[in-house]
Amino acid sequence: MLFSHRTDLPNNAVDIGQEDEPSDVIALSGSLIDTRGAIWRLSADHVVDFTVFGMLHSDASEAVKGYARHLIRNNAPIYVTSQISRLIHITNPSVASTINKACENGDFIPRAAYEGFRKAALATVSLPQMGGYAGTYVRWYIWATDADYEAFSPEVAAEFEQLQTGSNPQGQAVLRSDPSAGPLHEVEMIALRSGLKAAGIAGTLDLQDLCLAWLYLSFGTNSKNLRMLNEEDLIITIALDGGCIYELRIPRIKKRTRGPRDQFRTRRLVGDVGRLLERLIEENKKRPGYYETKERPMFRRSNARVELMGTPFVRDLYRCTTSWPSSRLRATAAALGLRSKTGEDLKLHPRRLRYSFATRLVQEGASPQEVADALDHSSVAHVMVYFNARSDAVRPLDRALTMLLAPVAQAFLGKVIDDESRAARGGDARSRIRHNSPTMRSLETVGNCGSFAFCGLMAPIACYTCPSFQPWLYAAHEHVLGALETRRKKKLEQGADPKWTQLYDETILAVALVIIRCDELKAERAPT
Q1: What residue numbers bound the domain in which 30 lies?
Q2: How many Å apart are CA 464 and CA 28, to the nearest integer?
Q3: Does residue 182 share a domain with residue 284?
Q4: Of 41, 54, 228, 426, which has the fewest beta carbons less than 10 angstroms from its beta carbon?
Q5: How far apart, in whole angstroms, are the C-alpha atoms of residue 374 and residue 184?
Q6: Cβ-count burial 360-382 (b if 16+ within 10 Å, e if not)
Q7: Total number of domains in the chain
Q8: Each residue of 200-255: pLDDT tens digit?
């Protein structure tokens, strides 16, 4: 069966063909869609314009509208718009001529129209994408035949039922580790996390952008999950020790429910991200129209979408649009000055972060069932690509590669100082960060801690990636780097889990960047 058939519709909205087609259609979401004119609004973000289909004979154009109504009742708006946009190729002059001639003569639309459709589509889409377009045409034709539209031949429909149209290739960006569309390279992920940490401390990034990026990194969601978040979805529980436990109710999508907020998955949030969302909610209260609507989106527009006034979608008056998450991630990458491992501007978008999230789970030893659950898939079928891509392979990280990738990773967030006299806690012996050097068989001071709070993390491993660390210009950072590299190599030779190296790689890249910064400062001060 090509589409699920709903039997719970009222009498004026039954899923039939051209006879007695209602002007108002009840969508899968429960919204009432006005289908009287040439332009139909399906949601706050999706509109279908049938104007271009007006060049077709009414037998064909009405079949397109009838099919669209069928899709509206059974599918999400984004799917409906994508399918109708693919059918636009039947308005190609050559294809339209074939269709119109058949309709005018009282004949069936022939198989030749399908061949013309494929030819017209291939002028604008790639061959691998063609399967999806061909499938759309075939499903439309079979549905129109079953719905008794006069211009559609049962014999041609029977041929189409046996036709293998193919489909768009799935997971190719992951399998190829595509540098612009696949999972982020480890150093690119380090650079993103480091940049977000630094921007959060300095307040140099818009709070909405900061929260959005951290949520993508935390959960690998689709954009709609985050767009549909409301403030009420942040759950805060006070623990027995007085601390806060943060959880987030994430709306589920693609689960064939009536509304986009009918089902949720509750996920645990790390404290830092939870506190950011608390701040965001307080900031939202200062935005215009905060108390005008019942629903209060987590990611809120500053201006109302006036085109939604008087429509069933007025609840989304201040909710961000479909394109907003992608545009904000691009802006975040630019604001942080992120670069790819090849030195180009980093292409950052939601799907890459979803790929990266799943890839990291595989690297950490998650099972297919665990990855499917984390991505909110109903089966493991769509996650095996991450395992087939051998995401658990250890990337080599020799000294030359380390020094090359360190500027890309930007893992060091502190500031190089000449000596302890320039330190924030200069003269305080407790602020000194020491390294136990196997080479020199002694404790070497490599810098100072600029924080006045108790840390408790392992020094100097955790220090080089901390914004409060102030490494000395003339300290032996090379000894720290050498010790980390030796330990990494030894652990792998002993059969340690490959994911263990991730704990050290960020620090290794941070130490390498300190060495580079020190060399640059020394070169600047050298007499000419």
Answers
A1: 11-161
A2: 52
A3: yes
A4: 54
A5: 18
A6: bbbbeebebeebbbbbbbeeeee
A7: 3
A8: 988 999 999 999 999 999 999 988 899 999 999 999 999 888 889 999 999 987 65
